[in-house]
């Protein structure tokens, strides 16, 4: 089966005061390539470390490490994956205070929904008695 590339939800970034670490996992057949962009420019390997590994014929994982990210107020990092059938991108917005991705924006909504469901369950138990 042939598939255009897609970026998996396991892709993420973590940040400390001294280092920014991101991973990007992509699935596609034929096997995709990954390119990193920092603030709109193709990443220069002399300023950061990039390591990629093939997990199987269709999954590729790439790791991006930038030392001393706190020297910049805001960074935009993009993982772009390409094969002969298409491309996909994941943007990571990194500030000196926090790391966020589009996927992490769902967490507050999930927590709120679970809270409402728990409250509804407690009310049902209370009124059934």
TrEMBL record:
N-terminal signal peptide:
none
Q: List the transmembrane segments.
A: 105-128
Keywords, in A-Z order:
Disulfide bond, Membrane, Transmembrane, Transmembrane helix
Question: Where is the Ig-like domain positioned along the sequence?
Answer: 5-95
Q: Does the keyword Membrane apply?
A: yes
Q: Per its record, how is this protein called by name?
A: Ig-like domain-containing protein
């Amino acid at each position: 089966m042939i598939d255009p590339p897609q970026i998996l939800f396991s892709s993420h970034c973590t940040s400390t005061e001294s280092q920014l670490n991101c991973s990007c996992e992509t699935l596609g057949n034929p096997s995709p390539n990954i390119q990193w962009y920092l603030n709109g420019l193709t990443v220069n390997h002399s300023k950061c470390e990039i390591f990629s590994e093939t997990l199987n014929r269709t999954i590729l994982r790439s790791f991006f490490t930038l030392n001393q990210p706190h020297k910049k107020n805001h960074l935009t990092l993009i993982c772009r994956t390409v094969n002969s059938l298409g491309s996909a991108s994941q943007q990571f917005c990194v500030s000196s205070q926090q790391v966020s991705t589009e996927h992490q924006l769902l967490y507050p909504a999930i927590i709120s929904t679970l809270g409402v469901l728990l409250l509804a369950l407690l009310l049902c138990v209370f009124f059934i008695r």
